[in-house]
Amino acid sequence: MSIEVRRADDADRWDDLVAAADHPTPFHRWDALDVFAAHAGADCHRLVGYKGQEPVGLFPVFTLSKGPVTAAFSPPPNLKLPYLGPTMVWRQSAKRRRRDKRHRRFVDACLAWLEDEYAPRFTLVRTAPGYEDVRPFVWRDFAATPRYTYVVDLDRPADDLLAAFSSDARRNVTSDYDADYELAEAGVDGIEAVVGQVADRHAEQGESFPIGASFVGDLYEALPDGVVRPYVCRVDGEFVGGKVNVEDGSEAVCWLGGAKPDSDIPVNDLLDWTYARDAMERGVDAYDLAGANDARIARYKAKFAPELVPYFRLQGGSRALTAAAKLYSSLR
Which end of the chain is more exposed for a tag (fewer CB within 10 A), N or C? Predict the structure, then answer.
């Protein structure tokens, strides 16, 4: 039986399927997708594949058009989103051959739906960590580029995690400092401070930062309590650094922040350790440090005893149209 693709029209049903899917992220939630579409100026298509009446996979895709050219993205460009892409829904265990067949037919059906409805000249997908089988895209002539992130295993006692840290990381998070500092979860005010600091650091380096606090604040307001979690560090009552994490169920992603602070204490180490301990108490098993592709940043993140986990950048379309990606990355 072939796979039929339909656009989802029920938010609760979609979120239930996300919760049951393989390797979903908080970014797959219905309300998050609405916020992304609004800030990207894109149309969101929540595709669900069905075998008969049984859902087999989800694929949120965004389309942007300029003149006669349409491009498709998952996640949408220019929002600093690390991942999105497809995820499968396995209702029962199945042998390898059957799983491979269903997966390939699902991807084929989604790409055929996009071609029939929008005929995108360029398609760009970044998969979530754990979505490792990108062969159905490669077989459709997509270029697959492996990318990497670090994921910290939180499913263990805090003392065991601390013991696995590098010696400098252990020292940084356990030492006493001659400063009156506070590490705590914050709200919208924390988001504004974190995003503002990151934007300022980019400006100092002559680089632009494509998002504002309004985007992250809208996501904070749209999603259930506890999904978007800003953590900040204050010294003598003044903000010196922070991070915005997203957390859903047993997994969390360190999304934004971590700019080099103007402080004599190891702010970012303390923030990650504070968040990790809090997340453990909430039942979070995995803390994705969101990226291990830059050599300098990877050296910093590696000291927290993470596992190296791949994800993929998938690009479909003519090489001559690669410029379309650059064009759409500037659209807001």
Answer: N
What amino acid is encoded at 136 in this protein? P
Average pLDDT over residues 36-43: 97
Token look-up 């047993």 returns 250
pTM > 0.85: yes or no: yes
Beta bridge partners, 152, equal 287
3-class DSSP state of 129: coil
Of 247, 266, 284, the residue at which a domain comes to its end is: 284
Q: Report, in this order, helix, strand and coil percent for the chain, each rounded to 5.
A: 40, 30, 30
Note whether 129 and 185 are same-domain residues: no
Residue span of the structural domain in which 208 resides: 155-284
If you compute the radius of gyration of the chain from its CA atoms, what whole number of angstroms results?
A: 20
Reported as a pLDDT band with limits 50, 70 and 90, residue 322 is low
CA distance 10 to 19: 14
> Do residues 20 and 89 lie in contact, with contact meaning Cβ atoms separated by under 8 Å?
yes
Are the C-beta atoms of 27 and 67 separated by less than 8 Å?
Answer: no
Locate all alpha helices (DSSP H) within 177-306, ordered by sequence. Answer: 188-204, 213-222, 267-281, 295-301
Q: Which of 40, 84, 35 is nearest to 58 (CA)?
A: 84
Torsion on CA atoms 129, 80, 193, 240, rounded to nearest 10? 60
Cα–Cα distances (Å) from 22 to 53, 68, 299, 313, in that order, read: 19, 36, 29, 18
The Cβ-side half-sphere exposure at 115, using a 13 Å CA radius, reads 9
The rounded percent of the chain whose pLDDT value lies above 90 is 83
Q: What is the pLDDT of residues 171-204, one digit of tens each?
A: 999 999 999 999 999 999 999 999 999 999 999 9
Cα separation, 135 vs 138, whole angstroms: 5
Structure tokens at 32: 């998050």
Cα separation, 133 vs 120, in Å, equals 23
Q: Calculate the alpha carbon distances from 25 to 123, 136, 249, 297 in Å.
A: 21, 21, 10, 23
Domain count of the fold of the chain: 2
Domain of 196, CATH number, reads 3.40.630.30
For 92, the token pair is 């029962």
